[in-house]
Design brief:
Layout lengths: L16 H18 L9 E9 L7 H6 L3 E9 L7 E7 L6 E7 L1 H10 L2 E11 L6 E8 L4 E2 L2 E8 L1 E2 L38 E8 L12 E7 L10 E5 L6 E6 L16 E7 L10 E5 L11 E4 L3 H10 L10 E3 L6 E9 L12 E8 L5 E8 L4 E6 L8 E3 L4 E8 L10 E5 L8 E8 L4
Parallel strand pairs: 1-8, 10-16, 18-25
Antiparallel strand pairs: 1-4, 2-3, 2-5, 5-6, 5-7, 6-9, 10-13, 11-12, 11-14, 14-15, 17-22, 18-21, 19-20, 19-23, 23-24
């Protein structure tokens, strides 16, 4: 679905000033070198230039000038799977013309040629907001066909929005994610460390519902192993993923020790995944966590964890409220829940061809004065469509009392209702006086 682009701007607190200054300084340094990243006379596994599809309207130089940044993660693989990664590298704050070299030096070229004579290349591009705090858009690109090791002058186009491509319908789609937690990183950016992860202790897959995969890239994912799923400080090993790509193939290694970790794990442990909005494990109210139902033996490689999105989704939407969700809705007994409003959703003819099988319609009820989120309902993208909103329509399942005037917000998106997907149409109704209103008509159309 293509439509008008929704822009997210996050304000900056005074306490973030020093961190932002450091980030901008780092971005400036990286922009200076990103235009010519490879060194003459050095052998590489692959060299080339990155281009960005013009439809995406992404100009890294212009974004950098506004205080944002564009980060890049690339991998070289022997096959499309995440387990096939041979080389990976990231750049912080690339410029509009980015020439790259991956796998530098005779030793690494010789080592890779001993494993394979054909390679695949992938790229993940993240666009950060002003201040560089959060991702607003993500795009990907990959080679459809294998290339000879040592290829020069590859032109790799970033040609898909993150989550847009159907892996079943495109050629050699990168399976399992866009970077490997097990592969050693080549030439880490300034201010970051290169760490040898050590022997693998646990590995598996972490996922969220498909229609929310993009939304959860905005969060920090922690994965750990310990005796108590809630005692994060006691985890024997722990890894952090700042921009997780779901489904995520994770690995926990013995050198990824927590504060009281050990380089030897002898007994079975619980493996825990934690999605955290602010990246601070000490603030539990903005977290979703899931663990294996029972301890698993060291060396287990087929762990599967699915994160329940309901609590986190409501937190996202409250944070996206201009009022910050300051007015807390009152929980009520479900047997006392009322019908709040009834109406009809219509879609402009000019947009009907843009609706795909991945498109979803979200309806939310927000307090007219504070814009606090009260109700959420997910519907199929079928138009025209009659709707009813009840006080039981919440992601958590708890009924919420709707008091006074409110507005209905309709969001049509291929991603999540917070608006982080750039291809989103959102319409907010006029103020509705109170519970019981019927005959409401909301028309989704392009802004004029």
């Amino acid at each position: 679905m293509k439509s008008r682009i929704a822009t997210i701007v996050l304000t900056q607190t005074a306490g973030q000033t020093k961190r932002t200054a450091a980030v901008l300084s780092l971005v400036f340094c990286m922009v200076l070198v990103s235009a010519c990243d490879r060194q003459a006379g050095q052998p590489y596994v692959i060299t080339g230039e990155l281009t960005i599809k013009s439809d995406f309207n992404v100009d890294p130089d212009e974004i950098n000038s506004r205080g944002g940044r564009v980060n890049l993660m690339m991998t070289v693989r022997s096959g499309p799977n995440i387990g096939d990664v041979l080389v990976q590298r990231r750049w912080i704050g690339i410029g509009s013309r980015h020439h790259f070299g991956l796998g530098k030096g005779d030793d690494i070229v010789t080592r890779i040629k001993a494993k394979t004579d054909r390679i695949y290349v992938t790229a993940l591009l993240d666009v950060y907001d002003r201040g560089g705090e959060r991702i607003t858009r993500s795009y990907v690109g990959w080679t459809r066909d294998a290339l000879p090791v040592g290829s020069d002058n590859l032109v790799l186009e970033i040609d898909n929005a993150y989550g847009q491509a159907d892996p079943r319908k495109v050629k050699n789609f990168p399976v399992g994610g866009w970077y490997s937690p097990s592969a050693t990183e080549e030439a880490p950016p300034p201010g970051t460390a290169q760490i040898n992860p050590g022997a693998r202790a646990f590995s598996g897959t972490i996922d969220v519902p498909e229609d929310l995969r993009y939304a959860f890239r905005q969060f920090v994912l922690y994965v750990g192993a310990g005796d108590d799923a809630k005692a994060t400080r006691e985890f024997k090993v722990r890894a952090r993923y700042d921009t997780p790509s779901f489904p995520l193939n994770f690995s926990l290694h013995l050198n990824q020790t927590a504060s009281k970790g050990s380089k030897v794990i002898e007994n079975p442990k619980l493996v825990v995944a934690i999605l955290d909005f602010d990246g601070n494990l000490a603030t539990a109210q903005d977290q979703c966590r899931v663990s294996t139902p029972a301890p698993v033996a060291p060396g287990t490689t087929d762990i599967k964890l699915m994160i329940d999105p309901r609590k986190m989704l409501e937190f996202i939407m409250k944070r996206s409220s201009p009022a910050g969700g300051e007015k807390a809705p009152q929980k009520i007994d479900a047997s006392k829940a009322r019908s709040v409003t009834k109406g009809r959703i219509e879609l402009a003819d000019e947009l009907k061809a843009m609706v795909s099988g991945k498109t979803t319609l979200w309806l939310t009820v927000r307090d007219a004065a504070s814009d606090a989120l009260v109700l959420v309902k997910k519907l199929s993208a079928e138009f025209p469509q009659d709707f009813e909103l009840r006080e039981t329509d919440t992601m958590s399942g708890a009924a919420m009392r709707v008091e006074g005037a409110f507005r209905i917000r309709a969001t049509l998106t291929d991603g999540d209702p917070s608006g982080s997907d750039p291809n989103t149409i959102r319409v907010t109704s006029d103020v509705i006086p109170g519970v019981g209103a019927t005959g409401i008509v909301i028309r989704l159309e392009k802004s004029k």
